[in-house]
Design a protein that fits this description.
The chain is an alpha/beta fold. The chain has a single domain, classed as HAD superfamily/HAD-like (Rossmann fold), CATH 3.40.50. It has eleven helices and seven strands. Strands 4-3-2-1-5-6-7 form a seven-stranded mixed sheet, sandwiched between helices. Helix 2 packs antiparallel against helix 3. The protein starts with 16 loop residues before the first strand and ends in a 5-residue tail after the last helix.
Amino acid sequence: MAAATPSLPALRTKPKAIFFTDFDGTITLQDSNDWMTDNLGFGVELRKQNNKEVLFDGRPFRDAFQDMLDSVTKPFDECIQLLLQNVQLDPAFKEFASWCRANNVPIVVLSGGMQPVIRALLAHLVGEEEAAVMQIVSNDVKARPGKSINDENGWDIEYHDDSSFGHDKSLEIRPYAALSDRPVMFYAGDGVSDFSAAKETDLLFAKAGRDLVTYCETENVPFTVFHDFSNIHKIVADVVEGKITVQQAATGSK
């Protein structure tokens, strides 16, 4: 197994597998950014229209996402408190995370969201100790000129990179994939921010009924559908234990 480097921290414990995952709408039942847009910003209909433009018309995700967040003007600390009250965890994720920790399967959260939101929600939903061991690679938040993030209309997203996604998740995965001797790699996601990661791992989990399934079927990307993390837990455990191969697990929407 290849040795860990500062740029590949998930190799530190020499794992047999790495579980990369989206956060919003995948680990959580609600997407925190969608929730803010729907309830504090320009609403459900415009958000859905934005997603359709990304999915079918080639609009850059970064631009659509910026429009969504620009419509949310509440101070950042108020947004965090409202999200803590309204965003729930996938009921099977905590058990899966514990299994991963016990079986040396690092969880790497790759998110199109913002680091302070993710850290606050993870600590609240799974506990400080469990959250602390998860690597998080995401966008961040910054103050608008002349303001504090906790002012009205005071915060803005700070994108992770210059890509059309704002955070191109493939950039984190590809250095692992390029290794000649590497762990099995999984990815779980649900929406348009996951398109960049969809083709990069050995097995992709796409959430039932969401945009990532549509993308995979349109682009002929192998995947397996999941409804919650109990589905993921069983398949990941079976692959890690050698009971099935990733090819056997990629059953599409079945």
